[in-house]
Amino acid sequence: MTRYALITGASSGIGLALAEALARRGRSLILVARQRDQLESIAIELTQRFGVEVLFRACDVGEPLRLSGFLLELEEGERQIDLLVNCAGIGTSGPFLAQDWMTEQDLIEVNVLALTRLCHALGNSMALQGGGQILNVASVAAFQPGPWMSTYYASKAYVLHFSEGLREELKSCGIKVSVLCPGPTRTAFFGTAQMDTAKLDRLALMSPEEVALHTVRALAKNKAIIIPGRRNRWLAFSPRLSPRWLTRKIAGAINKAYCPR
Ligand SMILES: NC(=O)c1ccc[n+]([C@@H]2O[C@H](COP(=O)([O-])OP(=O)(O)OC[C@H]3O[C@@H](n4cnc5c(N)ncnc54)[C@H](OP(=O)(O)O)[C@@H]3O)[C@@H](O)[C@H]2O)c1
């Protein structure tokens, strides 16, 4: 029976690069995101290049009813999924009180609720199958509070802590859980979060392909927390060295420089 890796957020950026890296290693895939046409052309391309089966499903995972429908389809389709990659995510930036509430709610629905629900549904299927692997995508933002991107940083702190907790809990079911914490990466993320992309372009951002290569190697070794790149490991570690008030001030000053006023 074919086993699939299901990847959310596979239509662009890090999710797409992970899809390609896994297809290159012979994995059959189920790609999920909202942009159907994009998913279709990626599925065709990956199948042609790597000879693997690539299915796709357009779904807004931030819409609980749509996600329920998709999960029901998966259950009825009886496809074995032995790797879940929760990569779909969005960011917002700027003063919290000035944000449109629906955008903040969408962020929590996608980054927190959908990710948790997919872990619950597919974690149960994996437990029945006797095992599997889950990779949740957090960020180096998960290691500290982030004024002017407070909701985003807090959502990633949730993903980090939730994933570490699950890792211990699910060991006995044969399910390995890892969490990926990339640093700034060249993707559409910053544009979606309405950050100053011209300023960000001047930074040496990692490519999504570099992040994906590091990640698939670390996944094979069942690493708990995957942080690609030395600079990003420093970004994740450095908040431990400064008092909390200073960490908040530094993160706030950096975010403010790249956020809309
Ligand atoms: N780029 C960075 O610097 C960076 C750093 C640390 C962590 N991350 C994290 O990495 C993950 C991937 O982001 P990225 O940088 O690759 O940005 P991206 O290129 O904007 O990718 C985001 C992906 O999420 C999907 N998505 C967004 N909302 C969705 C929804 N409601 N339902 C289903 N899919 C949805 C998008 O597809 P559709 O638009 O087709 O739905 C897209 O495939 C995110 O969790 C992000 O927080 C990024």
Q: Would you kindly provide a written description of the structure presented here, covering whatever features stand out?
A:
The structure is a single chain. The longest helix has 29 residues, at 101-129. The protein has one domain: Rossmann fold (3-Layer(aba) Sandwich), CATH 3.40.50.720. It has 261 residues and is of the alpha/beta class. Helix 4 (101-129) links the parallel strand 4 and strand 5. Helix content is 52%, strand content 15%. It contains 10 helices and 7 strands. It is globular, with a radius of gyration of 18 Å. The model has no long low-confidence stretch (mean pLDDT 95). The chain has helices at residues 13-24, 36-50, 64-77, 101-129, 150-170, 189-192, 197-200, 208-220, 230-237, 244-258; strands at 3-8, 28-33, 54-58, 80-86, 132-137, 175-180, 225-226. The relative contact order is 0.13. A 7-stranded parallel sheet has the order 3-2-1-4-5-6-7, with helices on both faces. Bound molecules: NADP nicotinamide-adenine-dinucleotide phosphate. NADP nicotinamide-adenine-dinucleotide phosphate binds at residues 8-15, 33-35, 38, 60-62, 87-91, 110, 137, 139, 182, 184-185, 187-189, 192. This is SDR family NAD(P)-dependent oxidoreductase. Keywords: Oxidoreductase.
Characteristics of this structure?
alpha/beta; Rossmann fold; 15% strand; seven-stranded parallel β-sheet; 7 strands; 52% helix
Bound molecules: NADP nicotinamide-adenine-dinucleotide phosphate
Percent of residues in helical segments?
40-55%
Kindly, what is the distance between the CA atoms of the first and last residues, rounded to a whole number of angstroms? 53 Å
- The largest beta-sheet arranges its strands as 3-2-1-4-5-6-7
What is the string of SSEs from the N terminus onward? EHEHEHEHEHEHHHEHH
Number of strands: 7
What portion of the residues fall into strands of 2 or more residues? 5-15%
Total DSSP helices: 10
**In CATH, what is the homologous superfamily?**
NAD(P)-binding Rossmann-like Domain
CATH topology: Rossmann fold
- Count of domain modules: 1
Strand pairing plus helix content: what structural class?
Answer: alpha/beta
Report low-confidence residues grouped into runs of 5 or more: none
Which class in CATH terms? Alpha Beta
Largest sheet, strands/sense/barrel: 7 strands, parallel
CATH architectural arrangement? 3-Layer(aba) Sandwich
- Global shape: globular
Cα-atom Rg, whole angstroms? 18 Å
Mean pLDDT: 95
